[in-house]
Amino acid sequence: MTVLGRLTERILGLPAAPTSATSFPGSGAVGVARGLRVPMPDGVDLLADLHRPRGAGPLPAVLVRTPYGRRQALVRVLVDALARRGFQVVVQDVRGTGGSDGAFRAFHDERDDGLATLAWLRAQPWCDGRVATAGASYLGFAQWALASRADPPLAAMGVGLTASEMVSSFYPGGALALHNTLVWSSLMATGDGRRPAHARRVRRAMRHLPVGEADTAAIGRPEPFFREVTANAERPGFWDATDHSAAVAATTAPVSMVAGWWDLFLRGQLRDFAALQAAGRQARITIGPWGHDLKALRAVLLDQVSWLEAHLHGDAAALRRAPVRLYLQGAGRWLDFERWPPPGTEPTPLHLSRVLTWGDPSGTEPVAFTYDALDPTPSVGGPLLAPGRGGQRDNTRLERRPDVAVLTGAVLDRHLDLIGPVSATVHVRASTGHGDLVVRLCDVDPRGVSRNVTDGVVRIGAPGIVRAEVEMSPTAYRFRRGHRLRVVLAGGAFPRFARNLGRGEAAGRAVASRRVRFEVHRDADHPSSLLLPVWRG
Predict the structure, then answer these.
(1) Among 1.20.1250.20, 3.40.50.1820, 1.10.8.420, 3.40.50.410, what is the CATH number of 3-168+239-321?
(2) Alpha-helical runs (H) found in 123-170
(3) pTM score, whole prediction
(4) Which of 108, 234, 480, 486 has the most CB atoms in a 10 Å sphere around its CB?
(5) What is the pLDDT of residues 430-451, one digit of tens each?
(6) What is the rounded distance in angstroms from the CA atom of residue 340 to the CA atom of residue 271?
(7) In a 10 Å sphere around its CB, with 0-12 CB exposed, 13-18 middle and 19+ buried, how is residue 289 labelled?
(8) How do beta strands 484-490 and 404-408 pair?
(9) Helices 73-83 and 3-12, packing angle to 10 deg
């Protein structure tokens, strides 16, 4: 372990690694064998590094598969933290990345390559046959790709900030997730995503039309993953082979998860956890007040070290906690529950009447606004791959725009806690028959500052009044006494979502636009509302 590694552990607050000979077989030092060639059935070799205690006999192994380079800083922190605690770690560059052969096809090859790597690993004389997996984000998806098909099953899994399927993150509600897709694909293509000049260029490129060529505007050449996502926005079945969600319930390995209230994979990750619990599997999850960022790193490392200690080293202390641990935003409290959604929550409709109301909806005229793709409604905060831009933000300027509708509730006379899934049913007419409806729930403090709590989007592709079902991000949030709830309705949130040009043309190729007038109906025959998980605990 380097001095930098020890300093990183200290900053992150990780417990000190044991150094005794009883904790580290042999001399206690960690040896590294670099550039091991792992053959795939099609003749491609993938490169891996092996970190193991010197002088040890056969041990269980922790497999980490990454597209970011096996010596990338954040990967090294995870690997070093595990290796210093007596784990044998194999970290591998996935196909077409780092030193591995082949072409990188994001999300497509992780099942077959992962299973081939697992078989190779178990055949090595230094492995005792037990294999666990670890990692976050893409490294977590790579675990789900092989988990249910591992035979024998994995010894344990540590999956952070990820989900077993990615389609709902590429096209949330049917809209194209432009910002996150272009940021990630540009980073993978160039590796310089943290440079300010690169970030500015990528952000400017988000305005490019057609959006399917924004990669060229960002990095000067086509990027395969971005082209796949934009070309198949109307063909979600294209990604079926990369969707491993149907197999989650069949995964028998003990699974520990870390999620964030502002992470782009939160909805899918909670669906995975609920599937594991419904199948009676051993699983736990921690959901904190962070996004897909460095704030989550400490939680991921602590969680995965303790989980692997329990299942590979027999330290049962890590198992003495509730299956669900979540942070109640606005209250500054961590809460423990046995299940997700937690018991004691009551799905309660909040009606979009003349004002927000909990009672029976009263008949009132539609609320209307007009969306212009040439002056798109901007996105504010939310689950973004952009340091300093995502999460909870002041929405006051957004709410002053003429292309949004704002509905506000009465001042709360007591705290209101929401814990669980959030959704909206909105009866809406788009004048052209095509548009995106964005629904956002905000918290307005006594000074009038409005901050986003959760939101969702749905694509509309039919004439007339449409009953739009909007899946919003789950949350755990306290609206404090003296605050008010606010719902903001809009026809877009750019550049988080690509602009809907209002003509029904393929998202990746469209260039011409039409203004779209939205009418949200909320009379007795069209009771538009949010369904909020009110917690009575």
Answers:
(1) 3.40.50.1820
(2) 138-147, 167-170
(3) 0.95
(4) 486
(5) 999 999 999 999 999 999 999 9
(6) 9
(7) buried
(8) antiparallel
(9) 90
